[in-house]
Design goal:
Length: 210
């Protein structure tokens, strides 16, 4: 009796037929390295040991996020974008170098603004996965989104009393009274409802819970 050949496992676009989600995963993977490299420069520019240690912790969080996103890409047989890897590597190195010459305020401020936008990235991914009927990544995406929110609040805490903040907040739309996400760590949605965050971030209303 001839052996039965098992069906091939779908990979790439066949396994994850959502181009926007695929691109978001690829971009997040590369952007997390850019953030990590930037924080290496930021930490190196600081003199206070406690501040330096906290930035190193945040750097490690970003390396961890990169590892988690890679696991998702590999799960579906999706490639890493070489173009984005090069692009974000250069961005990260440039920001790292700038931290040594632009003073203390701007590295904290722009890190906070960046993290504020990164929060939504992972919750929108959760929503995209749910549109495909996939919920197995909810926990890690929720965890990464919440960790990015913690980062945002840390950076805001460092600059909130600066006389520069009101002006930067007006120009760059982030600060004490403005955030790029709707996450409140004091009143968080439960994991199963995390997809409801950032309903306007992808230009579509949040899905109803299945």
């Amino acid at each position: 009796m001839p052996a039965v050949t098992p069906p091939l496992k779908a990979t790439g676009a066949n396994a994850l037929p959502h181009p926007v989600l695929v691109r978001s995963l690829q971009r997040a993977y590369s952007a997390e390295r850019a953030a990590s490299l930037a924080y290496i420069g930021h930490a190196a520019s600081l003199r206070d040991p406690a501040a330096k240690a906290r930035i190193k912790e945040i750097e490690q969080d970003e390396w961890d996020h990169r590892r988690h996103v890679l696991a998702i890409l590999q799960h579906y047989g999706l490639p890493v974008s070489r173009r984005l890897e090069v692009q974000y590597y250069l961005i990260g190195q440039f920001i790292a170098a700038c931290c040594h010459v632009i003073g203390w305020f701007m590295p904290y401020f722009f890190a906070g603004k960046l993290e504020s936008g990164n929060v939504c990235e992972y919750f929108v991914m959760m929503r995209h996965f749910r549109s495909l009927g996939i919920r197995e990544h909810d926990a890690i995406l929720y965890e990464m989104g919440m960790k990015e929110k913690e980062h945002e609040l840390y950076f805001l805490e460092q600059v909130k009393h600066s006389r520069l903040l009101p002006w930067f907040e007006k120009v760059f739309a982030w600060g004490r009274g403005r955030s790029r996400n709707d996450v409140d760590l004091e009143a968080k949605y439960a994991l199963e409802d995390g997809y409801q965050y950032c309903p306007r971030h992808d230009g579509k209303p949040a899905l109803k819970s299945p």
